[in-house]
Amino acid sequence: MSDNLELHTVDAQTGVERVTPLSCVRDGDDLVIEVAEAAWFHDIEANPDEVTAHLGDEWFVAEVLTEGAVLRLRRQTDFARYNARVIDRYRANRGVLGGKYEKVDLLLLHTTGAKSGARRINPLAYAKDGDDFLVAAISGRVAVRTNWLVNLAAHPDQVELELGDRSVPAAGRVVTGGAEWDRLFEVLVRRYPHLARSRDRGFPIVGFAPQLWLTSTTEAGERRRTRLGFTRDGDALVIDADRDADWFQDFRAHPDQLTVEVDDAFFGVDVQERDGTLVLRQRTDFRQVNARVIADFRANRGVVGGHFTGRELVLLHTVGARSGEPRTHPLLYLWHDGAVLIAASGGGTPHHPAWFHNLRSRPDQVEVELPDRRFAAIPEIVSDGPERDRLWELFLGAELSSRGHTTGMSRVIPMVLLRERSG
């Protein structure tokens, strides 16, 4: 007795997903189909690792075995290997995948294994619900308790979303029924109509809400980094004023020393207390923030916490283009071709940062301070062309900046090479 399946392959010529209805015969757990001189067969020859099958409500990744005049589709149990290939392609293409994922919004969910304690990564399709990312906890149209959902329940404070070229902390909210589930289900179905057939299976829906990193100063003068949920109020960020939390005690002791990392930007904030919440607005004067970073850099031989944890910093010394006053700027950098490479990204602001104007105006008064030495530098500005693009890609590859910084920007980010001045 034959069954009807949908065979999903990747077009050998265009890389676009092809869906072909075929007849198959069950042989144990395998599905057997006849070889044909057809486009789908050439797809399999070209992309054998990109084959999936839908049979009724079942979905599975298929390992294809050729046996004479038939093909045997075997359910692939090694999803780790399949996921690894998807993750590699996702990162290589900054989150843009072709083939079967061409019409899918994909994120990489980072969780911590409930039993192993090891970090786990799962590629998942999502739909947006306001600022939240909605994911159906369903495996191949079959409602099961997916591993990542178990991990989420075990370690809810260790969740991150990898979105293209940036990662954000997130809190997962699991919805299993009721009016809210109905609403979220409709949001998912509008984006992925095929899910409508799985409504009766009652799978959980998870809404992932992005969080921010709040860095505060303890009574001992150390920097504390805390992840918190937030809402938006115009250009302000609103967080709950948890008066028992350690970070709130830090705030009481040092109210002017809070910094926020969100949406790939890092800034100091002015704080207003309002009805059990704190309203955070970006502080336009970065001098206090920079002063603390510079002090930490010098006190700890270049090691700075908070937003800069695990990253290498350099202190760039310039002279104000207008004021003539000395200025010091902490910046992320990369060694390249015997020079210090920095980017005039300004955290994604629409204008070049002040240090760039200083450096361009007074190029003979530039110095670089490393943890172990300080030297006069000759700046080489690369502001356009293929070489600028190449240096910017190096910066992105080292995760020192984000492609998100350039979204909607009208300027091109200049790159600067700082070479030690001889003599």
Structure, explained:
With 423 residues, the protein is of the alpha+beta class. The protein folds into four domains: 76 residues, Electron Transport, Fmn-binding Protein, Chain A (Pnp Oxidase, Chain A, Roll), CATH 2.30.110; 131 residues, Roll (Pnp Oxidase, Chain A), CATH 2.30.110; 69 residues, no CATH class; 120 residues, Electron Transport, Fmn-binding Protein, Chain A (Pnp Oxidase, Chain A, Roll), CATH 2.30.110.10. It contains eight helices and 26 strands. The strands form three sheets. Strands 7, 8, 9, 10, 11, 12, 13, 14, 15, 16, 17, 18 and 19 form a 13-stranded antiparallel sheet that branches. Strands 21-20-24-25-26-23-22 form a seven-stranded antiparallel sheet, sandwiched between helices. Strands 1-2-3-6-5-4 form a six-stranded antiparallel beta barrel. It is globular and about 85 Å long. About 1% of the residues have low confidence.
